[in-house]
TrEMBL record:
Alphabetical GO biological process terms: maturation of 5.8S rRNA; RNA catabolic process
The protein, known as: Uncharacterized protein
InterPro entries noted in UniProt: Beta-barrel_MTR4, DEAD/DEAH_box_helicase_dom, Helicase_ATP-bd, Helicase_C-like, MTR4-like_stalk, P-loop_NTPase, RNA-DNA_Helicase, SKI2-like
Main localisation: nucleus
Length: 990
């Protein structure tokens, strides 16, 4: 093993760097471990002799097995009393380092905090650590056990709350362990990690446990700078159990090895697999002909059934089958109906574990459909794990899987986060996922995270990953997925009102200090030299372009651009709804702007926008609901235009599994197929005077091909161009703005025609050169803006605007003194703090019953979209209207203070989907009864209820802070009403 103890030149003196062989050298081809250390500025490390003498006492913990080199290196750092980031693959053994840090703290009579990203993982860790150590406590918000223990396991949110409250524990803590610290890149909750690290006590030391991240050094440099202490990086790519990656083509019968256990990508094998996809799909569609699709998919011929059966025959079990949809997980599990993977003894054990686990539930809760549906599956050795399951069932499944009683588990991506449950094989049912905005390819980092579950150390000589492929996948994308590098650890820092108010209230800090110390600011500062180099390089490239008579060329170029701009303005007037709607009849030929510019190789003057011809089929007024799944750019254009036009054109498929962007129109002379695509009216460039007959039903391919062939024939007959509708004679455009634009266009075209360089033989070359120079000038301007932004404090403007909102709404004074309203918002971190505080001070929560109050608060915690026709009762509907009115007022204030808030989207983010269910639950209804009131997953509803109880707990603290005893009592009553039965059943790990 080659080890280097180095330091970043920007953070330490170069003479502090050293490198050499470790005493634990192994063959680097078998094991590679990198050990570096980041030092803060002006830091002089202790001599090696002093460091070794300080750690010469007996080890805090001894292990019955030989530690890996990376574990030994990390423990050496801990013994020297210095922070360490351990970056290694899943199941490599990072937990050993955490356990040693705890043992070290307990040996030295110090307090230690172990944080994790999710409550379920905290519960698991508490159970594991309690078996290993005696003095362990747990704090997750839901549960508090032994809060005065020397070792406290908690979620990162709890740690952040303790820091803001100035908890006594923070003064005593010597070590803080951040498990799964790469979670810091999570766009919603990642900021909590940054806040917690920045605000940690200056005398504390850290253990960061992370999956492999390529920029681990950057992270450790940041920690060293913020806390003025050394931070070691122990990084290993070594995987104790090597992986083999296979592809299973749709409709195929076998596996193709694409990456072997040595990490070599086999392109020939991959191409065979990709080619087998289309062949397999064709065979499958023929086999399914004449049968209902559902019948076919549930048969033994389904791909997933064949694959799981193959895995069992080859003894590759246990297997985790990853799917990116909760419903698909259950659907696929049900396809295994004819597989029985457990013997009678195992079935009896499953029955016993299941019955014991559910003993704490009432008889009614035991009759829930999800409970009854799952037991037969589990007895056959098949499990399902996703966020929609009842929490107690998820834990039963985790325990059964650990005990080897589940051979095939269908799970969503969340199963790969934190839970230490490896399998021999991992299967990916899809290579695309919906990330909240769009469908996209799985990133290499996500693939590494999930595939890391394959291969059990000490049990398997190799792990097996199988990618089910049902569409054409580019080799480059596949290679980057299965052979790519992990996702970098980038900051997801963002401001919140709760953060700003808590920082204002804290004597020792302020928002600017937090921003300046954030990892986001650190990354921006580090990017500054590259940005400055980019400006210099662009300027050199621009200055190297010399143009004869540049002033004349510049003037001529400007006239050409004005001409193009005026043509666009004229088109906008002519094709506005008032003039164009009467002419959007089915059958009319239309030319549509696609995107970008068509650059001619011969001449700059022939440069024109990319367009395609098609036939109008229909048009409709834009409705917000119809744009829900549309690309953001198209959404903006559609709202501006007010109308969407359906056009039959020659298209190619994008293989996008979403409603929007499934097809891309192309020129009629390119390969494609006739399909109907929707365009905003603003993208229609010209309407032809010609119309063709269009079949009433265009669902059949023959009808679409026939219509498009007519378009091709008409274009052939008019080689000089189709006759267009005349704006004035045909479309009756008679506005003064249109006439003014036409006159200006005529004047500019006259100037272009009579320009002094119009007849120059070198005009085209000079125009091209000037065009390139102009583009470089624009790039330089943008790059200089990036430099200015990187030089300034990030989020500086947003912080100013948010402070303005807080002053305008009465949460803080102009001197940043937190008012009474602000003290309430300081306590609320799990919901929208402004709207909730406004409701409290409006008196709305005091004037309603406790049941109505918790129903209203459910709008703050429910985020899933539910299709439901059920209407709210009159009382709840009135309450929801008042919530919307409050949210609209808060949204408008934010908009007035220059924050980019879409007021209607903001108002609609408070969803009333589970109000009736929560109201009924608070009234004492059984869980089985409330599940009939809405089409939601049981687990999703319970998770929302737990978040609701968390919000109520924060509201109790807020009411206490402002001395509102009556309101505090109501919140406590609301908490008691919902905190019962299966919704708050105790965790099996506790």
């Amino acid at each position: 093993m080659r080890m280097a103890v180095t330091s970043n030149s920007s953070l330490a003196n170069k003479e502090q760097s050293s490198s050499g062989k470790s005493s634990m050298d192994v063959d680097s081809s078998e094991y590679t471990c990198l050990h570096e250390v980041s030092y803060p500025p002006e830091y002089y490390p202790a001599s090696p002799a002093r460091r070794s003498s300080s750690s010469s006492c007996k080890p805090a913990k001894e292990y019955p097995f030989t530690l890996d080199p990376f574990q030994q290196e990390a423990i050496r750092c801990l013994e020297s009393g210095e922070s360490v980031l351990v970056s290694a693959h899943t199941s490599a053994g990072k937990t050993v380092v955490a356990e040693y840090a705890i043992a070290l703290s307990l040996r030295d009579n110090q307090r230690v905090i172990y944080t994790s990203p999710i409550k379920a993982l905290s519960n698991q860790k508490f159970r594991e650590l309690s078996e290993e150590f005696s003095d362990v406590g747990l704090m997750t918000g839901d549960v508090t056990i032994s809060e005065n223990a020397s070792c406290l396991v908690m979620t990162t949110e709890i740690l952040r709350g303790m820091q803001y409250r100035g908890s006594e524990v923070m003064r005593e803590v010597a070590w803080i362990i951040f498990d799964e610290v790469h979670y810091m890149r999570d766009r919603e909750r990642g900021v909590v990690w940054e806040e917690s690290i920045v605000m940690a006590p200056k005398n504390a030391r850290f253990v960061f446990l992370s999956a492999t991240v390529p920029n681990a050094r950057e992270f450790s440099d940041w920690v060293a700078k913020v806390h003025q202490q050394p931070c070691h990086i122990v990084y290993t790519d070594f995987r104790p159990t090597p992986l083999q990656h296979y592809v299973f083509p749709a409709g195929g019968d076998g596996l193709y090895l694409v990456v072997d256990e040595k990490g070599s990508f086999r392109e020939e094998s991959f191409y065979k697999a990709v080619n087998a996809v289309s062949t397999g799909i064709d065979k499958k569609s023929k086999a399914a002909n004449g049968k209902r699709k559902r019948d076919f998919e549930n048969s033994e011929q389904s791909d997933i059934f064949k694959l799981v059966k193959m895995i069992m025959v080859r003894q590759f079990d246990p297997v985790i089958v990853f799917s990116f949809s909760k419903r698909e997980c259950e659907f696929l599990a049900n396809q295994m109906a004819k597989l029985d993977l457990n013997n009678e003894d195992e079935k009896s054990l499953v029955d016993g574990v299941f019955s014991n686990a559910l003993d704490s539930l009432s008889d009614d809760d035991k009759k829930l459909p999800q409970v009854g549906h799952l037991l037969p599956l589990l007895k056959r050795g098949i499990g399902v794990h996703h966020s929609g399951l009842l929490p107690i069932l998820k834990e039963v499944i985790e325990i059964l899987f650990q005990e080897g009683l589940i051979k095939c588990l269908f799970a969503t991506e969340t199963f790969s986060i934190g839970l230490n449950m490896p399998a021999k094989t991992v299967v990916f049912t899809n290579v695309r996922k919906f990330d909240g905005d769009k469908f996209r390819w799985v990133t290499s980092g996500e693939y590494i995270q999930m595939s890391g579950r394959a291969g059990r150390r000490g049990l398997d000589d190799r792990g097996v990953c199988i990618l089910m492929l049902d569409e054409k996948l580019e080799p480059a994308i596949a290679k980057s997925m299965v052979k790519g590098s992990p996702d970098p650890l980038n900051s997801a820092f963002h401001l919140s009102y709760n953060m700003i108010l808590n920082q204002m209230r804290c004597e020792e800090s302020d928002p600017e200090t937090l921003l300046r110390s954030s990892f986001y600011q650190f990354q921006c500062d580090r990017a500054l030299p590259q940005l400055q180099d980019r400006v210099l390089n662009l300027e050199k490239e621009r200055d190297a372009i010399h143009i004869e008579g540049e002033d004349n060329v510049k003037n001529y170029y400007s006239l050409l651009e004005q001409s193009r701009k005026l043509r666009g303005e004229i088109r906008k007037i002519v094709l506005s709804p008032q003039h164009s709607l009467p002419f959007l009849q089915p059958g009319r030929l239309a030319r549509v702007l696609i995107s970008g510019m068509l650059e001619s190789e011969e001449t700059y003057l022939q440069r024109e926008e990319l367009t395609v011809w098609g036939v109008i089929v229909n048009f409709e007024k834009v409705q917000s609901s119809s744009l829900a799944s549309v690309d953001e750019t198209v959404k903006v254009k559609a709202r501006e235009a007010g109308y969407m036009v359906d056009i039959l054109a020659n298209c190619v498929s994008n293989n996008e599994k979403s409603k929007a962007g499934t097809v891309r129109p192309v020129s009629l002379d390119e390969p494609g197929e006739p399909l109907v695509a929707s365009f905003p009216l603003s993208q229609v460039e010209h309407l032809s005077a010609i119309r063709v007959n269009v079949a009433k039903d265009l669902r059949g391919l023959e009808a679409r091909e026939s219509t498009l062939s007519k378009v091709c024939e008409i274009l052939r007959r008019f080689p000089e161009g189709l006759p267009m509708l005349d704006p004035e004679d045909d479309m009756q455009v008679d506005s003064s703005s249109y006439k003014k634009a036409v006159r200006r266009l005529e004047g500019i075209e006259s100037l272009i025609e009579n320009h002094t360089i119009a007849s120059s033989s070198t005009l085209e070359d000079r125009l091209r050169s000037y065009h390139k120079k102009d583009e470089l000038t624009q790039s330089i301007r943008a790059a200089r803006q990036d430099v200015r932004a990187a030089t300034n404090l990030v989020f500086k403007d947003e912080l100013k605007y948010r402070r303005r909102v807080l002053r305008r709404l009465g949460y803080a004074t102009s001197d940043d003194v937190v008012e009474l309203k602000g003290k309430v918002a300081c306590e609320i971190s799990s919901a929208d703090e402004l709207v909730l505080s406004e409701l409290i001070f409006k008196g709305l929560l005091k004037d309603v019953s406790a049941e109505q109050m918790v129903a209203l608060l459910s709008c703050f915690v429910w985020q899933e979209k539910v299709k439901s026709d059920q209407k709210l009762s009159e009382d709840l509907s009135t309450l929801y209207s008042q919530l919307q009115e409050t949210a609209r007022r808060v949204g408008k204030v934010q908009l007035e203070c220059k924050l980019g808030v879409d007021v209607e989207d903001y108002v609609n983010s408070f969803r009333p989907d589970i109000m009736e269910m929560v109201f009924a639950w608070a009234k004492g209804a059984k869980f089985l009864e409330i599940m009939k009131l809405g089409a939601v997953f049981e687990g999703s509803l319970i998770r929302a209820m737990k978040r609701l109880e968390e919000v109520i707990r924060q509201l109790i603290s807020a009411a206490t802070a402002i001395g509102e005893l009556e309101l505090e009592a109501k919140f406590q009553q609301g908490s008691a009403l919902i905190k019962r039965d299966i919704v708050f059943a105790a965790s099996l790990y506790l």
